[in-house]
UniProtKB/TrEMBL annotation, chain A:
<dbReference type="InterPro" id="IPR039421">
    <property type="entry name" value="Type_1_exporter"/>
</dbReference>
<keyword id="KW-0067">ATP-binding</keyword>
<dbReference type="InterPro" id="IPR027417">
    <property type="entry name" value="P-loop_NTPase"/>
</dbReference>
<dbReference type="InterPro" id="IPR036640">
    <property type="entry name" value="ABC1_TM_sf"/>
</dbReference>
<feature type="transmembrane region" description="Helical">
    <location>
        <begin position="148"/>
        <end position="170"/>
    </location>
</feature>
<dbReference type="InterPro" id="IPR011527">
    <property type="entry name" value="ABC1_TM_dom"/>
</dbReference>
<keyword id="KW-0472">Membrane</keyword>
<dbReference type="InterPro" id="IPR003439">
    <property type="entry name" value="ABC_transporter-like_ATP-bd"/>
</dbReference>
<keyword id="KW-0812">Transmembrane</keyword>
TrEMBL record, chain B:
<feature type="domain" description="ABC transporter">
    <location>
        <begin position="324"/>
        <end position="550"/>
    </location>
</feature>
<dbReference type="Pfam" id="PF00005">
    <property type="entry name" value="ABC_tran"/>
</dbReference>
<keyword id="KW-0067">ATP-binding</keyword>
<keyword id="KW-1133">Transmembrane helix</keyword>
<feature type="transmembrane region" description="Helical">
    <location>
        <begin position="239"/>
        <end position="259"/>
    </location>
</feature>
<feature type="transmembrane region" description="Helical">
    <location>
        <begin position="126"/>
        <end position="147"/>
    </location>
</feature>
<dbReference type="InterPro" id="IPR036640">
    <property type="entry name" value="ABC1_TM_sf"/>
</dbReference>
<dbReference type="GO" id="GO:0015421">
    <property type="term" value="F:ABC-type oligopeptide transporter activity"/>
</dbReference>
<feature type="transmembrane region" description="Helical">
    <location>
        <begin position="55"/>
        <end position="85"/>
    </location>
</feature>
């Protein structure tokens, strides 16, 4: 809780905060005058001086006018406090999302940031009005009669203090309720999306139980919240009702000391119209939006924290890839995806990686590109482990083209020059030509045309990504099923363009035909790996034979036509 | 039946208590200003205060007790009713099957369970408290008028002003917050776009550049945001000015009556309090709104409850080889004929491929075999028994179905394969047979990896979907269920299927010629009709058959 409150406090700009506080001062006036005006007006009316009484009430309206000016200015400053805070959160969420690739970032950006924005503003408003009311009422009471102030203020503060004390209990309950609600949405979402599958497997009871669990948890959390509400009611009894009863009980004694009826009424007015409403507002605001603020902001801070990457200093010599007994597993209990893999890819090589899906081909690509650290063994690119290279140094050495091509809203040219801002028009045109994207670029309206990514097919996106990567200055290109949405002919042209590009080419194959174009082929099969040329593999690798045979002769019947 | 009355009745145990507490609370609210006023008069006139003081204390204690009862009983009633309604909705949705839930979006159904159910559960408490909540504002108006009719007139004038301010405020904010939300949506769209290419961005080290691109709209959002506060500032100032006017009007009129000696100082005090309580008239719209929301929530729940659940029969399946018969089966949807008088007699234990161009009705044929939908006319029989007549447990034990895009349900990877229908040994065997084991065992916590933490490719999900259907005792329906597998894995699974040592009937919808070639029999569908049934080799001689496979 301390972290979230500190985060909010740190985001407050000093100047705006001071202005906000300064403009809140005029608002104290109507609060302070309230009971005073009622007291004096009543005494005047009782004494038969109607004019004086009305004048006091007129003064109350005038004070409200002054307060309104203050309120207006203060609320404008509120925007200057809240909006920068929201900006900080949006920046943080975007920053974290782009670096951690955490799921749910978009929902955090919309829903959670808004919740924090609203509750943050709510907290400021409520805290402010509480401060105004307390200062105003105490001022008014003191000017009315210090003895009344002494009777009323201590129990009020006591009730407020106790309500602060139970916030900790309340926080856990609110957290539990929010968590149960989320669980419910998630599990209901997964069960309802899978109604067909549930019916097919006869898992109706299981699904009902799966969603039923968070339903019960949520109900329990709500019941637990009722106990918090009850505690709050008791706090209100101390802070809101006790001062009133004390004042009434002391009434005869006060009158005996020469206190007027009007003054007594003024004191009661301060309690009923000043202290009670503000206490109930501040208690429910702290207990509800305050806790929602803490919980939601906590979630944003947790999920958007970016792990500090150690600053790297190495620089590669060349771009030879060398793996020595490299292993990788996704967890300590998990079976390794790659086990003791030895591999050397010399500069200028063209290597294709084949094997069943899930065997670790993409993992290998990620390891070589420095996107994952090996869990065992040593992997170097240009004689330096990729982990010791800065992002910029890495980008100069290798370019990874993943299966899911990235195309962003912008012009064709912006997309193509993403990795090579210094490329000349000639270079770009040549890349478009050799990769085979001419038709696409002209259909899109030329290099200067704007792209709407959602309107491109998966294959078209891949072509854009391929041209972009072709232009990259990095000598080592790793295609991780980067052509899987292209037709075989387009795939051939793109791969051949990369092979002729200079530097090293590593292709993680989607189709076995990619293997036929490579110098060497790496066959991954279970935890076995074998690197060799096509002819050698045909003789020595049963898996390779199988894959190739399958590709070449899918029809088993000899009488069928050769088409 | 889920009606307003039914929902209200579910909480009936609590409702008298809630209603009583609300009524007493209203009575306390109305009585207290008068009692306080009398106390003040007693103090001023030097009369005995004790009686009034005790009365005031008693009323306050009663009010507190009512508030306590309301928080416990109200919450217990709403929480209990919500859970009851949610359980019913969830059971209804899963029992309705794919056909019954077709017209609902998943998100819509989720919102009905999470949102509508809790709105609906307010029906009982909102109904019984509505009357009680109307009492203090209305009653205080009456009491105000009783003290002096002019007080009520002054009060009403003030209230009209306040409502006008609130109304203007609501309208202006809507426009401005729309612009704000729009900008926010555009930022989210840019972020979504960038997250789609996150591997490229991470590899290229361009996260900073992307961050600047996504946040380019932030200043615009900031401007729109500031505007919302400007509007709030104006209306806040107006409220600060107008708020006390009501009270001042009542006090001024009351003061003049006091001068004339028609009311006492205590009555003036009470009048001021009633003016404040009367201003709570606005909160009545809140109660009415809650009732309206409850009604809407019940309506949305009732729509779900009105869906017919899948009706299963009561017969067990007799022993048999798994012979599947389509007897003059027709299916149509939205006036489109999907299957047109299909007659098929498929031998038990055989591998049967179903092929045809898209839109031929292959998936419908498969769904019928798995009883995911029923024919509009005709019968589908398994070993001589119409599927409709078979008990649910027997049917689902005998028939398994795997899909092109399986939706995996469960907390963990292991639960997504089997939610306790089979033993762990069987589960492992199924995972091995379908090569799901290859990647499941490589996950961070193996089979116990939580499903959301096990991101999968389409092919990997398909393998889990296959493993889930693997326990089928008699008939295995595969609706394009291996389409996303790479050639190597597909070949391995195909072999397992062909050499199935359980000798189950296998109905395989496929686009691949190699799969059709390995089947014992091919059913060739075209526009809802069976064009031919026979072995692949024989059909292959027909050029239009070859065209199916491109």
């Amino acid at each position: 809780m301390r972290r979230e409150l500190g985060f909010g406090a740190a985001a407050l700009r000093r100047r705006s905060t001071l202005e906000f506080a300064a403009w809140s001062v005029p608002e104290i006036l109507p609060t302070a005058v309230y009971g005073l005006a009622v007291a004096h007006a009543t005494d005047a009316f009782l004494a038969g001086r109607a004019g004086t009484g009305l004048a006091w009430l007129g003064g109350l309206v005038a004070a409200a006018g002054v307060g309104a000016v203050g309120a207006r200015q203060a609320y404008r400053r509120l925007g200057e406090l809240v909006e920068p805070f929201r900006d900080v959160l949006v920046r943080r969420v975007v920053n974290g999302a782009l670096r951690n690739n955490a799921a749910g970032a978009v929902s955090r950006l919309n829903r959670q940031v808004e919740i924090v924005r609203d509750t943050f503003a709510g907290l400021i408003v409520v805290t402010r009005s509480f401060a105004i009311t307390v200062v105003g009422v105490v001022t008014g009471l003191l000017s009315l009669d210090p003895v009344i102030a002494a009777l009323v203020v201590p129990p009020f503060l006591l009730g407020f203090a106790v309500s602060l004390g139970i916030l900790g209990v309340a926080a856990d309950r609110v957290k539990a309720s929010l968590f149960a609600d989320e669980q419910l949405t998630t599990s209901a979402g997964s069960a309802f999306a899978g109604v067909r599958d549930i019916t097919a497997t006869g898992a109706e009871d299981f699904a009902a139980e799966l969603v039923g669990e968070p339903i019960e948890a949520h109900a329990a959390a709500e019941r637990a919240l009722a106990r918090v509400a009850a505690l709050r009611t008791l706090c209100f009894a101390i802070g809101g009702w006790l001062p009133l009863l004390i004042l009434l009980a002391a009434g005869p004694w006060l009158i005996g000391r020469g206190v007027s009826t009007g003054t007594l009424l003024g004191g009661l007015t301060y309690v009923l119209l000043g202290l009670q409403p503000t206490l109930s507002t501040v208690m429910s605001a702290l207990g509800d939006s305050g806790l929602r603020y803490v919980v939601t902001l906590g979630r944003i801070l947790d999920s958007s924290a970016v792990a500090e990457t150690p600053k790297s200093t190495g620089s590669p010599r060349g771009h030879q890839v060398r793996l020595h007994k490299v292993s990788f597993a996704y967890g300590p209990q998990a079976e390794p995806v790659l086990h003791d893999l030895d591999l050397v890819v010399p500069e200028g090589d063209h290597l294709t990686v084949v094997g069943p899906s899930g065997i670790g081909k993409s993992t290998l690509a990620a390891l070589i590109c420095g996107m994952l650290p090996p869990t065992g063994g040593r992997l170097v690119v240009g004689r330096v482990p990729p982990s010791e290279l800065s992002a910029a140094e890495l980008a100069k050495t290798r370019v990874l083209i993943p299966q899911e091509a990235y195309v962003f809203s912008g012009t064709v040219l912006e997309n193509l020059m993403y990795l090579a801002p210094a490329a000349t028009t000639n270079q770009v045109n040549r890349a478009i030509e050799v990769v085979g994207a001419e038709a696409l670029v002209s259909r899109l309206g030329g290099p200067a045309a704007a792209i709407r990514p959602s309107q491109l097919s998966a294959g078209e996106r891949q072509l854009i990504a391929l041209v972009r990567s072709y232009l990259s200055p990095a000598p080592l290109a790793v295609l991780d099923e980067a052509t899987c949405h292209l037709d075989p002919e387009a795939e051939r042209q793109a791969e051949e363009a990369f092979a002729a590009r200079g530097g090293t080419l590593i292709v993680v194959a989607h189709r076995i035909s990619s293997a036929l174009r490579a110098h060497r082929i790496l066959v991954l099969d279970g935890n076995q790996a074998m690197v060799a040329r096509h002819n050698t593999l045909l003789r020595q690798s049963p898996l390779y034979q199988d894959l190739l045979g399958h590709w070449q002769a899918p029809q088993p019947d000899q009488i069928q036509p050769a088409s | 039946m889920t009606s307003f009355g039914a929902v209200v009745r579910h909480g009936r145990g609590w409702l008298p208590l809630i209603g009583l507490a609300a009524l007493l609370d209203s009575a306390v609210t109305l009585a207290l200003p008068t009692v306080l006023g009398r106390s003040v008069d007693a103090i001023a006139s030097g009369n005995d205060l004790t009686r009034w003081l005790w009365l005031a204390s008693g009323l306050i204690m009663l009010g507190i007790t009512c508030a306590l009862v309301d928080s416990f009983a109200g919450t217990a009633c709403v929480a209990g009713t919500t859970a009851w309604l949610r359980h019913r909705l969830v059971r209804q949705v899963v029992a309705a099957g794919p056909e019954g839930t077709r017209r609902f979006d998943t998100g819509d159904l989720v919102s009905r369970v999470s949102g509508s159910a809790s709105d609906a559960a307010q029906a009982g408490p909102a109904s019984v408290t509505a009357v009680a909540a109307a009492l203090p504002p209305l009653g205080s108006l009456v009491l105000l008028a009783l003290i002096d009719p002019w007080l009520a007139v002054g009060f009403l004038g003030g209230v009209v002003l306040v409502i006008a301010v609130l109304w203007v405020f609501a309208r202006r904010t809507t426009e401005i917050s729309l612009a704000y939300q729009e900008t926010q949506g555009r930022i989210a769209a840019l972020l979504t776009e960038a997250l789609g290419g996150i591997r490229t961005i991470a590899a290229a080290g361009t996260a900073d550049r992307e961050e600047r691109r996504v946040l380019g709209l932030l200043p615009e959002l900031h401007r729109h945001g500031l505007l919302t506060w400007r509007v709030l500032a104006r209306s806040g100032a107006q409220a600060a000015l107008i708020g006390p006017l009501v009270l001042v009007a009542v006090l001024a009129i009351g003061g003049l009556q006091l001068v004339d000696g028609r009311i006492t100082a205590g009555e003036l005090f009470a009048a001021a309090q009633y003016a404040v309580i009367g201003a709570g008239l606005g909160s009545l719209t809140g109660i009415l709104g809650e009732l309206a929301r409850a009604r809407a929530g019940i309506h949305r729940s009732a729509e779900v409850m009105a869906v017919e659940p899948v009706a299963y029969g009561s017969l067990p399946l007799p022993p048999g080889p798994g012979r599947l018969v389509y007897d003059d089966v027709s299916v149509s949807a939205d006036d489109v004929l999907l299957l047109d008088h299909v007659n098929l007699d498929l031998p038990g234990g055989a591998t049967i491929a179903v092929v045809g161009p898209s839109g031929a009705g292959k998936s419908v044929l498969a769904a019928l075999a798995a009883r995911l939908r029923d024919p509009d006319s005709g019968l589908v029989l398994l070993d001589g028994v119409p599927l409709k007549a078979v008990r649910r447990a027997s049917l689902r034990q005998a028939v398994g179905c795997a899909f092109e895009r399986p939706v995996l349900v469960g907390r963990t990877v292991s639960e997504s394969i089997s939610a306790g229908q089979v033993t762990p040994v069987q589960l492992l065997a199924a995972a091995r047979a379908t090569h799901a084991h290859d990647f499941a065992s490589r996950l961070p916590q193996g089979y116990h990896t939580p499903l959301p933490e096990a991101p999968m490719s389409g092919g990997e999900a398909q393998r889990l979907g296959l493993a889930r259907a693997w326990h089928a005792g008699r008939l295995l329906v595969l609706d394009d269920a291996t389409s996303s597998l790479d050639t190597a894995t597909e070949r391995q699974i195909s072999r397992t299927l062909t050499e199935d040592r359980h000798h189950r009937t296998r109905l395989i919808v496929t686009h691949r010629a190699s799969t059709a070639a390995r089947a014992d029999l091919v059913v060739w569908l075209d526009r809802g009709r069976v064009r031919a049934v026979g072995p692949h080799q024989r059909l292959w001689q027909d050029p239009s058959y070859r065209e199916i496979f491109g």
